[in-house]
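ARCHIVE CARD
CATEGORY: sequence design from structure
SOURCE FIELD: tokenized fold
FIELD CONTENT:
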């Protein structure tokens, strides 16, 4: 068997084996409901009508991603609501992505074993656990599958340009956009690859194609990016997911973006204290912002300076910077300041920087090859071990948010979600009313008692403790806030809870 084929098989099997524990994981009550087990389209089964609904509905999440909705529907058609099998679909697609990435690195003129090392790091890096072990992130692994296929198709097109080959690139790109809009930067990535390794322009170019023509060549792909970006923004705007500049000023967004770029680098090198939600508290400290800006400028300047002799550094770095732009927070959607899942594609750029930085002379001697091989194996084992540990936090909703609360005790969403489970769970081994009250009160203090969902949780926690008068008073306050925000459906649910607290009080007073 050829070494390349053997590496593909081992890579696929190893990836699936490390992620195999997700077979026993449950759905998490954090988007999985709206994406799968409470989704009208998904539960209705796969049909022509369902596919049409997927393209016209904006019920699922804060993005327009019809292909992902269709994929969830197909998985449900096959496996029902068996959460473990939904998880395994993510794992299999991730393993395919890793194999394709290995093939991509090989096509980019990388040598066999360095390409394998980079693919194994991508496969087993703990920063990718969120994208793989979260059923809702099927969109992440699915869009990346088409992203890598589009690049491979483009490398084929660049060898001998033609309309048919270009249409394959466009089709793969279009499918990826329909899975998740984050890949809108693909035309920018392809232009980087035109410079290196394709050498279609710039120093050492083997082609006389002017840069202007290469840019024009990307215009149809840019049109797809623009159309998808507009559609996504309009969907996010229509459901109120986009935070206004009044709620989060532009200066705070810029500062957070700079710090996020630096934090992602740190988490790639040392992936500790990972969390499902890094709560956005506004502008980071000035010193932190300045330090991050200086770091980014220094690395950018260095890669530009070395672009002629070491083009992989320039391409890898700007691949990283560019592919993060859609999710870096300049357009703020959601409560996160950053997210592990956002590094699923951008990490490829950092791997490019590393993979081609080892001098060929180091591979020429047996002694150095052994040192490099030992270091590579140690890194891969360390990644696999860290991923196995991180997977445990994704077992269920309570475990996931307990970890988020440990990482950041001042995260009101994590504290609120843990409090809700402690207050309302039917299992007496999990139900902890006193701890629920403590965490719910902390969440309310952190948000200034203005978040109705936190108030709802606090009322439920008081009721779980048997303090029905306090639960009633708190719930009434929450209903008033829901109505003020014109969230009438949630107000009606709170009214139902209020009625139950009044019944509880009556039973408590007159057993």
């Amino acid at each position: 068997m050829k070494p390349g084929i053997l590496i593909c098989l081992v890579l696929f099997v190893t990836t699936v084996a490390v992620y195999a524990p997700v077979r026993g994981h449950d759905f998490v009550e954090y988007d999985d409901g709206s994406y799968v087990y409470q989704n009208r389209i998904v539960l209705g089964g796969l049909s022509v009508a369902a596919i049409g609904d997927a393209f016209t509905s904006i019920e699922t999440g804060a993005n327009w991603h019809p292909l992902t909705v269709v994929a969830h529907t197909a998985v449900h058609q096959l496996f029902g609501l068996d959460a473990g099998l939904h998880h395994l679909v993510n794992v299999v697609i991730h393993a395919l992505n890793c194999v394709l990435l290995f093939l991509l690195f090989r096509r980019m003129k990388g040598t066999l074993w360095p390409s394998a090392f980079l693919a194994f790091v991508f496969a087993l890096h703990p920063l990718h656990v969120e994208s793989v072990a979260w059923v809702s992130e099927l969109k992440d692994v699915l869009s990346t599958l088409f992203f890598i296929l589009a690049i491979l198709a483009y490398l084929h097109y660049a060898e001998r340009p033609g309309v048919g080959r270009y249409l394959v690139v466009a089709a793969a790109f279009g499918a990826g956009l329909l899975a998740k809009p984050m890949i809108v930067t693909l035309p920018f990535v392809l232009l980087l690859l035109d410079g290196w390794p394709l050498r279609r322009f710039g120093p050492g170019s083997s082609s006389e194609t002017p840069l202007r023509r290469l840019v024009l060549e990307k215009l149809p792909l840019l049109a797809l990016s623009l159309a998808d970006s507009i559609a996504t923004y309009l969907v996010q705007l229509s459901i109120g997911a986009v935070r206004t500049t009044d709620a989060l000023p532009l200066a705070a967004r810029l500062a957070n973006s700079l710090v996020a770029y630096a934090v992602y680098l740190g988490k790639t090198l040392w992936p500790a204290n990972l969390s499902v939600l890094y709560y956005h508290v506004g502008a980071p400290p000035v010193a932190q912002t300045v330090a991050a800006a200086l770091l980014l400028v220094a690395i950018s300047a260095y890669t530009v300076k070395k672009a002629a002799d070491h083009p992989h550094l320039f391409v890898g770095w700007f691949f990283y910077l560019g592919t993060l732009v859609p999710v870096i927070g300049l357009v703020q959607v959601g409560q996160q300041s950053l997210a592990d899942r956002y590094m699923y594609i951008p990490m490829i750029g950092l791997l490019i920087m590393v993979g081609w930085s080892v001098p060929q002379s180091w591979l020429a001697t047996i002694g150095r090859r052994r040192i490099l091989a030992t270091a590579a194996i140690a890194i891969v084992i360390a990644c696999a071990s860290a991923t196995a540990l991180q997977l445990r936090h994704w077992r269920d909703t309570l475990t996931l948010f307990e970890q988020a609360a440990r990482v950041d005790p001042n995260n009101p969403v994590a504290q609120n979600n843990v409090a809700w489970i402690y207050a309302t769970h039917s299992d007496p081994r999990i139900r902890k009313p006193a701890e629920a009250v403590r965490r719910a009160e902390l969440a309310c203090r952190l948000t200034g008692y203005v978040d109705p969902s936190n108030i709802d949780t606090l009322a439920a926690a008081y009721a779980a403790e048997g303090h029905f008068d306090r639960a009633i008073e708190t719930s009434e306050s929450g209903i008033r806030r829901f109505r003020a925000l014109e969230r009438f459906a949630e107000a009606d649910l709170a009214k139902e809870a209020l009625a139950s607290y009044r019944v509880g009080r009556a039973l408590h007073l007159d057993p």
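CARD ANNOTATION: The chain has a mean pLDDT of 91. The longest strand covers residues 336-338.
SHELF: design records, drawer C
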